[in-house]
Structure to design on (306 residues):
């Protein structure tokens, strides 16, 4: 190889663009995560049998793994950044940077709970009653540490699934993830303790977080995802209002800040625009109409960046 070709080769390698290795959760969070990324402006696509999604950002490389494993891979540096539940970060004692909280789950925007549950007809009423009992769960490490912190000595074993059906024959109690509690009630189980509330988090590898380019890329992504999530329960509202009723109409308007007021060609009218919680719009719009507002338009939002 000539000296010239060596220089060309070296230049090609050194000019390669940096890449951010992103871990996305496969499983129950997958659909909600892809929807959130789309709203934030990222187009993510993956085949039904693939673990390597494509994303319309040439600086990002995606791999999908189970949320249960994500924190370990981020901690080890296999991923620069990943999305997983706070519960799995705690379960694995992962030494990572918690960049941002994203309050969403597979069924909505509320936190999920890890609860201790026993059969409805069980004599066990409190956590202390679990002393010497057998507990089945997928969250083994954290459950053992939690019970120890409460002074309860019990046998905690890993559950490979269908945890709700194990009491009373295969386990005395379970520690299970729930959003609404409906599955527990259907299996005639009763909650005796809420062990942990968890939401999705963006977590970063500590070494990657010290890299200025990667840190900025992660922060930008977090800002857009949080903005998309903040917009989930909000709408925009704009309308025309007669100046004679402006004070009264403005008094009805909740807003992140003061409503935006624009002049119109008709000196007796102005335009108003505000952002509000979607659940408020249903009751507010008829009241605005009665106060003289017209041309009222409600529209969805993609992102709200405070």
């Amino acid at each position: 190889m000539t000296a010239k070709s060596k220089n060309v080769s070296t230049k090609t390698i050194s000019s390669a663009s940096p890449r951010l290795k992103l871990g996305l959760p496969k499983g129950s969070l997958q659909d909600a995560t892809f929807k959130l990324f789309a709203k934030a402006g990222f187009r993510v696509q993956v085949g039904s049998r693939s673990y390597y999604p494509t994303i319309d950002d040439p600086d990002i490389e995606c791999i999908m793994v189970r949320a249960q494993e994500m924190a370990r891979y981020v901690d080890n540096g296999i991923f620069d950044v990943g999305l997983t539940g706070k519960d799995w970060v705690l379960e694995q004692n992962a030494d990572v940077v918690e960049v941002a909280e994203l309050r969403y789950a597979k069924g909505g925007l509320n936190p999920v709970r890890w609860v201790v549950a026993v059969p409805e007809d069980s004599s066990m009423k409190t956590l202390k009653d679990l002393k010497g009992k057998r507990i089945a769960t997928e969250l083994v490490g954290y459950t053992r540490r939690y019970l120890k912190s409460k002074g309860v000595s019990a046998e905690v074993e890993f559950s490979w699934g269908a945890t709700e059906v194990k009491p009373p024959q295969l386990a005395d109690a379970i520690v299970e993830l729930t959003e609404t509690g409906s599955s527990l009630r259907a299996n005639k189980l009763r909650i005796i303790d809420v062990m942990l509330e968890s939401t999705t988090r963006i977590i970063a590898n500590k070494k990657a977080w010290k890299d200025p380019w990667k840190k900025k890329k992660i922060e930008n992504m977090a800002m857009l995802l949080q903005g998309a999530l903040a917009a989930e329960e909000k709408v925009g509202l704009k309308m025309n209002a007669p100046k004679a009723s402006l004070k009264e109409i403005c008094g009805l308007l909740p807003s992140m800040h003061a409503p935006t007021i624009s002049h119109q060609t008709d000196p007796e009218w102005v335009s108003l625009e505000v952002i509000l919680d979607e659940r408020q719009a249903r009751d507010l719009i008829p009241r605005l109409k009665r106060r003289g507002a017209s041309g009222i338009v409600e529209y969805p939002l993609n992102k709200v960046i405070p």
